[in-house]
Amino acid sequence: MNEPPPADPQPRPQRASGSARLTVKPVNGRTRIATLFQEGCAKIRLPETDSHSLEAVMINTSGGLTGGDEIKWQFDIADDCLAQITTQACERIYRASAEIAHVTTELKAGERASFAWLPQETIVFEGSALQRNLSVDLAATSRALIVEPIVFGRKAMGEDVEKCTFRDRWRIHRNGVLIHAEDFHIGPDAASALGRPALFAGMRTMATVLLLDNDAERHLEASRKIIGKKGGASFWSGKLLARLIDSDAYSMRKRLVPLIELLNEKAGLPKVWSI
C-alpha cells in the first residue's frame, strides 16, 4: 500500500520588503535630485520647499513593521548640498513571531554638505522585534544632525510594553575614521528595563539627539535649558549628544521640537512634523 504524501508545511506569511536610494546634487545654489530609486514598500517623496535645501519624506507603504520585514534606505548628499530627511508618520513596530524586522540606513555627506536625519517617533508595540542599523559617512567639513525618538507603548491608548526586542546600532565615520558608535538593546523583558531608575525610571519615551559639527558647543547651554531635568547633554570632539526621556510622546515633543529647531538652525523643522 502506498504511503500518503506528507502534508504541506504551513506556508510562510507574506513579509514586507523595500529599498530606496536618493542622491542629490547642487544646481544653481539649490539642492536637487540627481537619482531616485525605489522598490517594494519603501517610497521617497520630495515636497516643494521655499528654501535652498531639499526635504525627503520616507514612506513605508506596508503601514508598519513586523517579524521578517526588511527595509533599506540609502541617501547620498553631495558637496555643498543641504537636505532634511524625515518620515510621513510615526513608524509602528508590531507584534512579531520568531523572526525579527530589519531596517538598514546608509547616509553619506560630501564636503560642506549639511543634512538632518529627523524621522518621527518609532512606536514599539507589545511582542515586537526590531533590529536597526544606521551607518553614516561624513566628509571633513560636512555637518549632520541625527535624531531618533522612540515610544514604548502609547500612554493615551493604554498600551504597556512588557515584552519586546529592540536593537539600535549606530556607526558614524568622518573621513573614514570612526567618531561615534552606539549600541542600544532592550528586551525581551522590556518592562524590567523601562522601570530601572538608571535607565527609564518608569518613563516610556526616549529621544537621542546627536549634532556633528565642530561649532556645536555653542548650543550646549541652550540645549540643556530646553531638555531640563528629564535628560542631559554633553559636548566633546565636535559632537553634541543629548538624551531625553518623558512619560509620553506629546510631552516629549514639547521639548524635542524646540531642541531640533535650535540645532537645525535656519532649516528648522520638517513640514510633516506637527505638535
Please tell me about this protein's structure.
The structure is a single chain. The model has no long low-confidence stretch (mean pLDDT 90). It is globular, with a radius of gyration of 20 Å. The strands form 2 sheets. Strands 3, 4, 6, 7, 9, 10, 12, 15, 16 and 17 form a 10-stranded mixed sheet that branches. A 7-stranded mixed sheet has the order 2-1-5-8-11-13-14, with no helix packed on it. A hairpin with a 2-residue loop joins strand 13 (165-174) and strand 14. It has 3 helices and 17 strands. It has one domain. The N and C termini lie far apart (71 Å). It is mainly β and 275 residues long.
Question: Which characteristics define this entry?
Answer:
275 residues; mainly beta
User: With helices defined by DSSP (H or I, 4 residues minimum), what is the helix count?
Assistant: 3
Structural class: mainly beta
Quaternary organisation of the protein chains: single chain
Q: What's the story with the biggest beta sheet?
A: 10 strands, mixed
Number of domains: 1
| Percent range for β-strand residues | over 45%
Query: What pattern of helices and strands is seen along the backbone?
Result: EEEEEEEEEEEEEEHEHEEH
What is the number of E strands?
17
The radius of gyration over CA amounts to 20 Å
Uncertain regions spanning at least 5 consecutive residues:
none
Look at the structure and give the mean pLDDT. 90
Shape: globular
First and last CA, distance: 71 Å
Report the helical percentage: 10-25%
Summarize the structure.
By secondary structure, the chain is mainly beta. It has helices spanning 190-195, 220-227, 249-263, and strands spanning 17-27, 30-40, 42-45, 54-60, 70-77, 82-87, 91-93, 101-109, 114-118, 122-124, 129-138, 143-152, 165-174, 177-186, 205-212, 231-236, 239-246.
